[in-house]
Structure formats: structure tokens, C-alpha cells
Design brief:
Blueprint (H helix, E strand, L loop, with lengths): L1 H6 L3 E4 L1 H4 L26 E6 L6 E9 L2 H4 L5 E2 L2 H8 L17 H11 L10 H44 L1 H9 L4 H35 L14 H27 L3 H6 L2
Parallel strand pairs: 1-3
Antiparallel strand pairs: 1-4, 2-3
Helix pairs in contact: 6-9, 8-9
């Protein structure tokens, strides 16, 4: 595709947003190109006309490719051969050159080196990788903030399990006394409280994970979400967080369970 754009004067390449009817998103006026589904692997030839609004000069181009969704945020708009561009719009006031590196991690250093070497010519070099990271920083920080709020809710829920366990011990002193009087061991009484807390905790974890997966799936696969994005579930991260929540809940229940097992039989039966 890029070789054709380099050698032929009558071809053009568009970005994913332009082909999807949302071209120019966040970068000025919208470009709505009909006849191409950006999710298809191939498409029928589509002709577009580029017009200079000042001189009225026009040129026809055949669209031969669509830039992937992930790269469209950096390579947006319509790309046409430089020679044809000058025929329609005249000599440009600036030119842009894209340099590919074998190691993308060295993009910042390479940009600084290019600027230092061509400083007298007024060349400005920027790392596309760094620009993408800067553009995603706001979104990334927003999600980190939401994760922090979710984590705060998780700790509050774990503490609530411990509070409920302490309250359960107080409210069931007579039942504990009866169990101890008919022969239940202290370890059995403590185990019953741990099993009860485990059931409640597992029920909450399963319900929370299930609802989160269900909601996220319908969100990502909805028409409002950009197409071309695959839906994946971070099972390892979910397992780690779920395991932490389950272990912390059992830890919060351990002290009330030992307290319940240590209740004297006579005192429990006299409790009103």
C-alpha cells in the first residue's frame, strides 16, 4: 500500500476514522467517506476528489488502503502523493518526514539527535511513541482514579465483613452456649463462623466478577464503542484481586471466630 502511494500519483490512503464516517475526530472538521467498511479486509474501489478551496483546482484519487484503528490517532486524515499535492495546493510551507527505527524505545533520543543535528535548518523532531503516551496519560490516570475508588470500596467491604462477624458473635451467644453444651468443640464453633464468612465472601466475589464481565462485554461490543477493538478478560489480575479479597475477609473473621469459640458455656446460657 505504501509502495503504491510512493509510486502512483492518483492513489490515496485514509485513516480508520475517515473510513468509518468520523474522520477528523478531535482535529477539526469531520470527513465522512462512504463506501468503505473499515472492518473489512478488502473493499471495492472508491474515488474521492480533493479540491483547493482558494484556487478551485481539483484532483481525483482512488482510495487503496485504510490505516489501522490503533494508528489512526497519530496518522489521521487523507494521505496523497506529495507531487500531486503540490499540483493542487502549490508548494507547502512545511514538509513532514516519518522515520522508522529498529528500536522504538530509542525514539525520544533519536528525535533529540535529529533536532540537534539540523538545528540551523529549523527542523523539529518529535517521537510519535511519546506523543501517543502523552495523549493516553489523561485516560490512564482517569482509570487509575476509578481503580483507587474501587479499591477503597473493597477495603470497606472487607472491614464490613469483620464488623458483621463481631456482631454475629454477640447476637448468637446463647446459640454458641447451646452448641458447646451438647458437645461441640471450640474448633468446630470457630470453623462454623469461618465457613459462614467464606460463603458470604465467595458469593460476593462471584457476583461482582460476573456482573463486571457482563457489563464490560456489552460496553466493548456496543455500537458506541470504536470498532476493531478485541474484548479480553484479565483472568490473572481478577484471580489475584479475588484471592486477596477472600483471604483478607477470612483474616477479618478469624478473631471473631476465636472469640466465639472462647465463650464460656455457663455465661453464654445466662446471657439475655
Amino acid at each position: 500500500m505504501w509502495q503504491e502511494l510512493k509510486t502512483r500519483p492518483d492513489v490515496a490512503v485514509v485513516d480508520h476514522f475517515t473510513a468509518g464516517g468520523g474522520g477528523g475526530f478531535g482535529f477539526g472538521e469531520s470527513i465522512d467517506l462512504k463506501g468503505i467498511d473499515p472492518d473489512d479486509q478488502t473493499f471495492d474501489p472508491v474515488m474521492i476528489t480533493v479540491r483547493n478551496a482558494v484556487t478551485g483546482a481539483t484532483a481525483d484519487f482512488q482510495v487503496i488502503g485504510v490505516i489501522d484503528f490503533g494508528a489512526s490517532a497519530s496518522f489521521f486524515g487523507i494521505y496523497i502523493p506529495d507531487a500531486t499535492f503540490q499540483t493542487v495546493f502549490g508548494e507547502p510551507m512545511l514538509t513532514r518526514h516519518l522515520v522508522g527505527l529498529e528500536d522504538p524505545g530509542e525514539s525520544k533520543a533519536a528525535a533529540r539527535e535529529i533536532e540537534a543535528t539540523l538545528l540551523s535548518s529549523g527542523v523539529q523532531a518529535k517521537s510519535i511513541k511519546a506523543q501517543i503516551e502523552d495523549g493516553q496519560r489523561l485516560t490512564r490516570n482517569f482509570f487509575l482514579l476509578m481503580q483507587a475508588f474501587a479499591g477503597l470500596g473493597l477495603f470497606v467491604g472487607i472491614a464490613a465483613v469483620g464488623v458483621v462477624a463481631f456482631r454475629t458473635v454477640v447476637e448468637r451467644r446463647q446459640q454458641i452456649g447451646m452448641l458447646r453444651a451438647i458437645g461441640y468443640k471450640r474448633s468446630t464453633v470457630a470453623l462454623s463462623f469461618l465457613l459462614e464468612a467464606s460463603f458470604v465472601t465467595l458469593l460476593g466475589i462471584v457476583a461482582g466478577v460476573g456482573l463486571a464481565i457482563w457489563l464490560s462485554y456489552f460496553l466493548v461490543t456496543s455500537d458506541e464503542f470504536p470498532s476493531g477493538v478485541s474484548y479480553t478478560i484479565p483472568w490473572f489480575r481478577i484471580a489475584v484481586i479475588s484471592g486477596f479479597a477472600f483471604g483478607a475477609s477470612l483474616l477479618m473473621t478469624y478473631i471473631p471466630a476465636r472469640q466465639a469459640a472462647s465463650v464460656p458455656i455457663a455465661e453464654a446460657l445466662r446471657y439475655e
